[in-house]
Automatic annotation (TrEMBL):
One of its GO terms (cellular component) is cytoplasm. It catalyses: L-serine + acetyl-CoA = O-acetyl-L-serine + CoA. Keywords: Acyltransferase, Amino-acid biosynthesis, Repeat, Transferase. Belongs to the transferase hexapeptide repeat family. This is Serine acetyltransferase. It comes from the Bacteria. InterPro entries: Hexapep, Hexapep_transf_CS, LbH_SAT, Ser_AcTrfase_N, Ser_AcTrfase_N_sf, Ser_O-AcTrfase, Serine_acetyltransferase, Trimer_LpxA-like_sf. GO terms for molecular function: serine O-acetyltransferase activity. It comes from Planktomarina temperata RCA23. The gene is cysE. It holds the Pfam family SATase_N. The keyword Membrane does not apply.
Length: 265
C-alpha cells in the first residue's frame, strides 16, 4: 500500500506529456536533438528542466551557468514553485493559439521563460537576497525584453502573449489566471516610496500596449482594451477602453483571460 501511494504521488501528467511530446519532436526534427535532450529528456522533472533552462538563458560572464543552475534549482525546490510553473505552462497551452504543445513554452516562448525566471528572483527577494534578485531582474530584462521588479507579486496561471516590452513595477500585484499581451505597463505615477502600482484582479485580460498607472484596482474578470491608458479603478467584470480609459460595457464573458476575446461590442 505504501509503495502504491508513493508511486501515485510521483505521477506528474504535465511532465509526462511534455516528455512524450519532446520525444515526438525529436523524431520529427533530429537537428534539434541536442536542445531537446539537454532541455527536457535529460531531466527527471519539470523543476529540473526549468532550472536548466533559466540558467542557460541568464548565464553571462558575470554569473556562470552552473552557479545560476544551483541557485535556480535550490529556489524552485525549496519554494515549491512547480505548481505555479505548471499553471503558467497550461495557461499558455490553453490560451495561445500559436502554442501547439507543452514543449514550446519551455523551449521557445520568452514570456513563459521570463516569468519562471522572475519567480526565482521573487523568491530570492522574499528571502532577503535582494541584490541577487536585482541581478535576476537585470538579466531577465536584457535577455527577454521584459522588466519585472522582483518585489512584484504575480499569481499562478499567468499568460503573456508575445511578451515584448512588458513592464511590471515594484508594488504591483497580479492575480491568478491573468492574460496580457505585449507592451503592457503596470506602472506608477510618481516618486512615492509606498504603494504606487496597480493591483490586478483574477481573470483579467489586458490588451496589447495598455498602460495601467498608479495604485488602482482592476476588478476581477475585467477587460482592458488594447492601447488604453487606465488611471482610475476598474470595477469587476467591465470593459474599459480609451485614453484615458472609460467603461464601455460589460466584460462580455465570465473569464475574459481564458477566452482572450478582445473585440469590443
Amino acid at each position: 500500500m505504501a509503495q502504491t501511494a508513493a508511486h501515485l504521488k510521483s505521477i506528474d501528467p504535465v511532465w509526462d506529456e511534455m516528455v512524450r511530446q519532446a520525444q515526438s519532436a525529436l523524431e520529427q526534427e533530429p537537428l534539434l536533438g541536442a536542445m531537446i535532450h539537454s532541455s527536457i529528456l535529460h531531466h527527471s522533472s519539470l523543476e529540473q528542466a526549468l532550472s536548466y533552462r533559466i540558467a542557460l538563458k541568464l548565464a553571462s560572464a558575470e554569473m556562470p551557468e552552473q552557479m545560476l543552475r544551483e541557485i535556480a534549482d535550490h529556489t524552485i525546490r525549496s519554494e515549491e514553485l512547480g505548481a505555479y510553473s505548471r499553471a503558467d505552462l497550461m495557461a499558455v497551452r490553453e490560451r495561445d493559439p500559436a502554442c501547439h504543445n507543452l514543449t514550446q513554452p519551455l523551449l521557445f516562448f520568452k514570456g513563459f521563460q521570463a516569468i519562471q525566471a522572475y519567480r526565482v528572483g521573487h523568491a530570492l527577494w522574499r528571502d532577503g537576497r535582494k541584490d541577487l534578485a536585482y541581478f535576476f531582474q537585470s538579466r531577465i530584462s536584457e535577455v527577454f525584453g521584459i522588466d519585472i521588479h522582483p518585489a512584484a507579486v504575480i499569481g499562478r496561471g499567468l499568460m503573456i502573449d508575445h511578451a515584448h516590452s512588458i513592464v511590471i513595477g515594484e508594488t504591483a500585484v497580479v492575480g491568478d489566471n491573468v492574460s496580457m499581451l505585449h507592451s503592457v505597463t503596470l506602472g506608477g505615477t510618481g516618486k512615492q516610496d509606498d504603494e504606487r502600482h496597480p493591483k490586478i484582479g483574477d481573470g483579467v485580460l489586458i490588451g496589447a500596449g495598455a498602460k495601467v498607472l498608479g495604485n488602482i484596482k482592476v476588478g476581477h474578470c475585467s477587460r482592458i482594451a488594447a492601447g488604453s491608458v487606465v488611471l482610475h479603478e476598474v470595477p469587476p467584470c467591465k470593459t474599459v477602453a480609451g485614453v484615458p480609459a472609460k467603461i464601455v460595457g460589460e466584460a462580455g464573458c465570465e473569464q475574459p483571460s481564458i477566452t482572450m476575446d478582445q473585440l469590443l461590442g
